[in-house]
Amino acid sequence: MRRSLAALVLAGAVLAMPGARAGAATPPAQFAFLPHPGAELPLAVALADEHGTRRPLAAFFTGKPVVLVLEYLHCRTFCGLPLRGLITALDGLPLDAGRDFRLVAISIDPRDTPEDAAAAKAAYLTAYHHPAAESGVHFLTGPEAGVRRVAETIGFPYQYDATLDQFVHPAGLVIASPQGRISRYLLGLDRFAAELGSGLAEATQGQAFDVLRPFLLLCRAAGVSVGGWSVPIMAAFGIANLAAIAVLIAVFAAILRRRQG
């Protein structure tokens, strides 16, 4: 329910803005995901792990599905929200990172270092209470050329804006099969255990090359014009949270009335 409300409120906020009417500028689709379901990831690309060891991407595909996230570690807007939501959702699954799957987060910012990756991993793992997390969760950094190859295979467009010192990019993740083929896209800011659980199960069997929840969401400072649009993204999420709280209050009120009746 909360997911649907958030999507509806976000869509309403976008449509209500100047420039979102018919005949106005179109959204910057060049920064939306361009899904390539079934594509083979470039497993030969070498990146540094959080210990500074350069390893090919193939080293993280060891017979288990991989949840793959592209982000960067010094984002000042909401880049951390998708990964935080993902960690929370994974924490609720009866699956263990390391035993049942791997989580690999790759930074798109070539300035991020293995030290940054280690700090980010430690911070995020405080919300993941599974025994093999240290061996099942990896934060990778590396040169722009290698990361760009991975991003292009996934269909994850991004661009650095020197004026704002930020990257424009979509929000979401992919689930890859143990053989390194893209199995499923999960797009948006939040992840839910049911979607992740089914996606990991299907990736293990090499099934379900599809896309879930395809909508445009850019990671950039709120209120900054992008391609003719100005998206107050944080305000939209604040409204969505308030709407979700209002619905929960109404549900509890209905339950109380039913019990009292």
Topology:
Blueprint: H1 2-16, E1 46-48, E2 54-56, E3 66-71, H2 80-91, E4 102-107, H3 114-125, H4 133-136, E5 137-140, H5 144-154, E6 159-161, E7 166-168, E8 172-176, E9 182-187, H6 193-204, E10 210-212, E11 225-226, E12 229-230, H7 233-260
Parallel strand pairs: 3-4, 4-5, 9-10
Antiparallel strand pairs: 1-2, 3-8, 6-7, 8-9, 11-12
Q: What do you see in this structure?
A:
The protein is of the alpha/beta class. It has 2 domains: 1-17 and 232-261; 28-229, 3-Layer(aba) Sandwich (Glutaredoxin). The protein is 36% helix and 18% strand. It has 7 helices and 12 strands. The chain has helices at residues 2-16, 80-91, 114-125, 133-136, 144-154, 193-204, 233-260, and strands at residues 46-48, 54-56, 66-71, 102-107, 137-140, 159-161, 166-168, 172-176, 182-187, 210-212, 225-226, 229-230. The strands form 4 sheets. A 6-stranded mixed beta sheet has the order 5-4-3-8-9-10, sandwiched between helices. Strands 1-2 form a two-stranded antiparallel sheet. A hairpin with a 4-residue loop joins β6 and β7 (166-168). α1 packs across α7. The longest helix has 28 residues, at 233-260.
CATH superfamily annotation of the largest domain: Glutaredoxin
Number of beta strands: 12
User: Distance N terminus to C terminus?
Assistant: 26 Å
The radius of gyration computed from the alpha-carbon positions, rounded to a whole number of angstroms, is 19 Å
CATH C-level label of the largest domain: Alpha Beta
What is the percent of helical residues? Answer: 25-40%
At the fold tier of CATH, the topology name of the largest domain is: Glutaredoxin
Largest sheet, strands/sense/barrel: 6 strands, mixed
Number of helices: 7
In which order are the strands of the major sheet placed? Answer: 5-4-3-8-9-10
Hey, roughly how much beta strand do the residues contain?
A: 15-25%
Catalogue the unreliable spans: 1-27, 211-218, 220-245
Count up the domains: 2
Which whole number gives the mean pLDDT?
A: 73
Helix and strand element order: HEEEHEHHEHEEEEHEEEH
**What structural category characterises the helix and strand content?**
alpha/beta
